[in-house]
């Protein structure tokens, strides 16, 4: 039987074939494209359509961008240079960059001050944002930074930030002394001590006021440009997180007065558009205050935006608190922890971790909302563009270049915040799933 | 820190409340600067230049008042206001006067309790159309699509005008002037309508201004002028007569170039002498010194010079004098006599 089998096969190979490269269609870029871009009829059509869209966008954008004029005194001069060709007039950016970044009244020889404050911001934020990668001692610098930055940007007597800091220090000392007796005594004692320090400090600052300060004083009205957005954004975000936590905890409190104050505050602020609050800050307060008062406009706006953001952050954090299983609260109680300890050690670390995406969402939205101050005639980045720059006879009519620049600045900051939050989420991941 | 600022503000407020009882003129003199409300930016009328210096036609009025009262045309704190914040800023005392291309209307004068101190620009609503449309009069616009800012008086004026002339139109609602420019250039509407000074500025920003014409019809009255609070007539007089001095100076041929000569000694024109303080005591009546008008005119020139420098035919905006010519040239500018 085996013979018949032998004869039925004409050829038997007795050596291995040499290794051949895989077919061209199944390797490298071609394979990747076949699998990812042209895996079916509909996908191929979508790919081609996307390619066409990208081509049209670039065909419009690249000549405009590459052909752009970076040095010209006015829009008309730009057009003369271009002679009808397509091209952006970026000369407005090179001429007015300082106004876009610092506003039109900040003295130009002092630009280094806000710039330095901006650079130091990273040093101050690092120990808070990357606690495991930066020495803890830098936290002292973070605590001093707000006062240093205020002094750098506003200038004037160094005594005002020093006394402001002293107020917090005395408040903390009194709190430490009295809190062992009772929480309320410590709380109110600290506030009173701080207020007295500020009051005395305020009088000393008034008495020693002089024009020969180390840094020339710059009034709030002269702040503007992207600097104003950054000031409002950083101050309001960093203030609204602690306020938001306090409001969220207050809303869950068993004490009815505190609970209702928090509920009323949150519901009222959330029910009112931010622009209304800004109008109140700018316009209505002027009626309540005595005539001739100049209660600093930036301070008013910071208070309003902080109130607005804290109400939203409070609700985000309440979501985080609600997501925690009840067992966590009970576990904290059974360990014998009191309320502050339970919150600080058990509840808040978990609740805040859950809330990170929500908080970042509010922070990014808040940062972009700072451009709303342009409607109450403050010259932030968008206010500078809409008002002075587009109203100058030289640059009336330059829209894309200016607003594109503004969009770029905001994108860089917001994308940075969002990337940081994703990194933080990965860091804190404990993977229960 | 913030609280210390707040407490400081309250202290200052207490002091200021005592001082506010005096008149605005004394307040301004005591303060040493004039708080003048202007727009956040309007081409030719008020805008800061690359060095942050405010320039423009309305700004010129502020500087003239500051020069008359304080002797220094740069002693002005310009307070930018938007259309929404301007009246509260004036009513609350944050600014001493408002020179912000504000239309003088009955309700603003009577109901909002302001006092218009004169008219520095006679504006009116007009139309701009592409030359290619072949239209030479607003009466031929029946059936046109028209870009119009919503919620403004221009919208109401437009409806009135078309109804009165028995024509119909299709409105394209827009929000801002910038949007209007874009929509009009993109061909979303045949016609764009707003104040004529705004149309001229808009056309100046176009790539080919020659392809667009502003139609001759003016369909509304928009007299723009500086205003002050009701009830402080001494201050109102200062602002009113400073503006009149600028207008009269043009009529009498007093310019920033020849004013030093004319003010050095009494000339043969009595009215000029009284205006420039070489005769009579008009300045004293206002609560100022004799040279007040000389300083007001020197700082930016007379009305005609301000006009030519900021919005006149040699600027990119290229407005002709039209209604804003002197009454002797067929315009409406007519200063009461300095006597």
Sheet bearing the most strands of chain B, described?
Answer: 6 strands, mixed
**Total number of strands of chain A:** 0
Order of helices and strands of chain A: HHHHHHHHHHHHHHHHH
Rg calc of chain B: 22 Å
**Measured on Cα atoms, how large is the radius of gyration of chain A?**
31 Å
User: Which architecture name of the domain at 219-433 in chain A does CATH use?
Assistant: Orthogonal Bundle
Oligomer: heterodimer
Look at the structure and name the CATH superfamily of the domain at 219-433 in chain A.
Answer: MetI-like
What's the topology here?
The complex is a heterodimer of chains A (433) and B (339).
Chain A: H1 2-8, H2 28-36, H3 41-66, H4 75-82, H5 91-102, H6 112-129, H7 138-154, H8 159-178, H9 183-207, H10 225-251, H11 256-270, H12 274-288, H13 297-323, H14 326-334, H15 339-369, H16 381-389, H17 400-428
Helix pairs in contact in A: 5-10, 5-16, 6-7, 7-8, 8-9, 10-11, 10-13, 10-15, 10-16, 11-13, 12-13, 13-15, 14-15, 15-17
Chain B: H1 2-19, H2 24-31, E1 34-39, E2 47-48, E3 54-55, H3 57-70, E4 76-81, H4 86-91, E5 97-103, H5 106-110, E6 114-116, E7 121-123, E8 125-130, E9 145-149, H6 153-164, E10 170-174, H7 177-185, E11 191-195, H8 196-204, E12 212-214, E13 222-229, H9 233-251, H10 259-264, H11 270-276, H12 282-286, H13 292-300, H14 303-310
Parallel strand pairs in B: 1-4, 1-5, 9-10, 9-11
Antiparallel strand pairs in B: 2-3, 5-13, 6-13, 7-13, 8-11, 8-12
Helix pairs in contact in B: 3-9, 3-13, 9-13
